[in-house]
Amino acid sequence: MTHQTVADNAYQAGPKSRAFFKEEQNYIAPGLQTIALYAQIAVESGTGAVLRDVDGQEYVDLVAGIGVASLGYGHPDWARAVAEQAAKTAVGSFTSAHRLNFLKTLASVTPKGLTRCQLYSSGAEAVEAALRLAKSKTGKFEVIGFWGGFHGKTLGVMGLLNDGFKNSYGAMAPGLHLSPYPDSRRCPLGASGPHDCGAHCLAFLREKIKRETTGAVAAIILEPVQGTNGNVVPPPGFFAGVRDIAREIGALFIADEMITGFGRTGRMFGCDHEGVVPDLMTIGKGFGGGFPVSGVVASDETSRAAPWSNPSGSSSSYGGNPLASAACDATLQVILRDKLVDNAAKVGSVMLEKLEGIKAAQPLIGAVRGRGLMIGVDLVHPKDGRPLDKAVCREVFEESLQRGVLTMAYNPSLRINPPLVITEAEAVRGLDLLGEALDVVRRRRGL
Ligand SMILES: Cc1ncc(COP(=O)(O)O)c(C=O)c1O
């Protein structure tokens, strides 16, 4: 057994994959994503929403690199744009035809007035840049996030994360606060229904600001749908309520659209569901179709705040370089041309309906929720509804993988977020295979 594997389960990837994985374990540092550690597959190629490993096994991908592969795999337009650009120049902060084109396109699809974008390489970097901009604009320094939130693993944002991720790293950056996020599974404040829960969480937020902050809140940051927490959709009105509170206290309202942006929820941005325009948006993941690129989107006025806006004040070495810009340009064009936002809404609703059907006959599924292609499924113990043990979840993951579907079923808050290009047939096939895997594990475990 290698140092990164957690248990020696019966599951085995194909022989070539296993050989790659085993040898790499001598060199790669521990801490890889769970999905890679558990699957132990070496990926060879992919087409659309289907991935292929080096043993020739194919998988319907319901993960998309956790919301990154918006165009799926091997998209010809994306591949051409990146390859052609790579052959010319890849480096530098100079403007380019691709960058100009995609920034103009981006400004035409963002919520009203959010026309300026600065570019980075990772999500955490963009979130940190958004916090710096909020501090520049307001002259304040505190930041409020939400229970269950995730904004990246760098030290400046770590204090905004849910428990677990930030444990054992000592003191977090000063001025960071967390408030409850309404959760359809169980209201953190014990309210009975989702609307009630949303109202309670808003009331709590007001009290928190009054009692716990120093009155110097620069920003409130919110995921329109909480991804890492299990694709949790807040009740209607919560998003607008947080925006109103931010306005009242003179803080910027930041929508972290890292996963929810670019069509994932069946609208171009997650905040579009509520018709709310945030002060800042952070974007990444599906934005570059796999190229590591992220950004902060702001209004013209907000983006002028100094010192953020001073020369070299908001820039970074790789942000918006020619290669990243080619990837973003191709990705945005394909999303718009091929109406992938509509596809996410359409296939997402088919998947939700299908999952409700599977749930009716499958006691391991407790609840299903979602928006577009951002779907959450709770895996539970049939007897008492508590989250399914992780060891059992891992079996579901492995049984799914063996049947040819890649999922995040190793966690009882199963997140489904396939590429936006997934077809209805692929989505249904993937869920059928997941249903089979659940059944096999339920019988084997006598649940
Ligand atoms: C909402 C949200 N914000 C920020 C991040 C951090 O992105 P990255 O891993 O690219 O730093 C993530 C990553 O999952 C995320 O889901």
Structure, described:
The structure is a single chain. With 447 residues, the protein is of the alpha/beta class. It folds into two domains: 15-74 and 340-445, Aspartate Aminotransferase, domain 1 (Alpha-Beta Complex), CATH 3.90.1150; 76-337, 3-Layer(aba) Sandwich (Aspartate Aminotransferase, domain 2). The chain is 39% helix and 15% strand. It has 14 helices and 14 strands. The strands form three sheets. It has a seven-stranded mixed sheet with strand order 4-10-9-8-7-5-6, with helices on both faces. It has a four-stranded mixed sheet with strand order 1-2-3-13. Helix 4 runs antiparallel to helix 11, helix 5 packs across helix 11 (322-337) and helix 8 runs parallel beside helix 9. The model is unreliable at 1-7 (pLDDT under 50). The structure holds pyridoxal-5'-phosphate. The site of pyridoxal-5'-phosphate has 15 residues, from helix 6.
Number of domains: 2
Helical amount: 25-40%
CATH classification, class level of the largest domain: Alpha Beta
Mean pLDDT, nearest integer?
96
Distance between the first and last residues' Cα: 29 Å
Quantity of strands, as a count:
14
Biggest sheet, open or closed, and with what strands and sense?
7 strands, mixed
* CATH second-level architecture of the largest domain: 3-Layer(aba) Sandwich
Strand arrangement within the widest β-sheet reads 4-10-9-8-7-5-6
Radius of gyration over alpha carbons?
Answer: 22 Å
* Strand-pairing-aware structural class: alpha/beta
